[in-house]
Amino acid sequence: MIGSFITASAASCLTPPPVDHSPARDAAIRQMMSGVGHREWSMAIVRQVAGNNADLLFPGGIADVAEASFDLADRDMLAAAHGFHSRKLSRRVRAAIMFRLEQAVPHRPAVRHALAVLMMPGHAHILARTIARTVNAIWTAAGDDSQGFTHATKRISLTGIYVSTLLFWLARGGNMAAVEEFLDRRLADIARITRLKNRLMGRPF
């Protein structure tokens, strides 16, 4: 149920606006993730980390902090995109998703708290654009240059894969081999559906 809700929300916002960021905001987010990420997120916690500037850095409150944390992970993934080597686009997508999850392993409780903030009543639109932004970043990191209808359908398909894998990782993140196998199964399911669709439409695979 949770995965379906997140996926539907993100699919409704395929081209989200960028997130404002600065060295000070990034530093506060990194400290939140590593220092107090195991505690339930609130502006009181942010003020402990960022001091008197907390409300100026994050004028949108705790939802602003949570959204910024996912955006920072997106940018870290994009910065590492040169290392996603494969001739197949699907393998580069896989590499991008695994990179961001592996990098987040030490901060899994913080990711859980950030996602919980975005799932609070009134934050659905922020959740939608956050997930959509991440899916766009994954495709960009993988080197996808599709446009039009293909661009949209790829993002809708990957949203379901990413959300279900993220939730699986939050539940089973201590076993990255299991996470990797789960992601591979989801990617294989999408590949089979794509091949069937192309066969029915008379297209080459």
CATH architecture: Orthogonal Bundle
> How large is the count of helical segments?
10
Mean pLDDT: 87
User: Per the principal axes of the C-alpha atoms, what is the gross shape?
Assistant: globular
Structural domain tally: 1
How would you spell out the order of helices and strands? Answer: HHHHHHHHHH
Q: What is the CATH homologous superfamily assignment?
A: Tetracycline Repressor, domain 2
Give the strand tally: 0
- The radius of gyration over CA amounts to 17 Å
- Give the amount of beta strand, in percent: under 5%
What is the CATH topology classification name?
Answer: Tetracycline Repressor, domain 2
Terminal CA distance = 32 Å
What is the CATH C-level name?
A: Mainly Alpha
Q: Which percent bin holds the helix content?
A: over 70%
* Contiguous runs where pLDDT drops below 50 for at least 5 residues: none
Structural class: mainly alpha
Main sheet attributes: strand count, strand direction, barrel closure: none
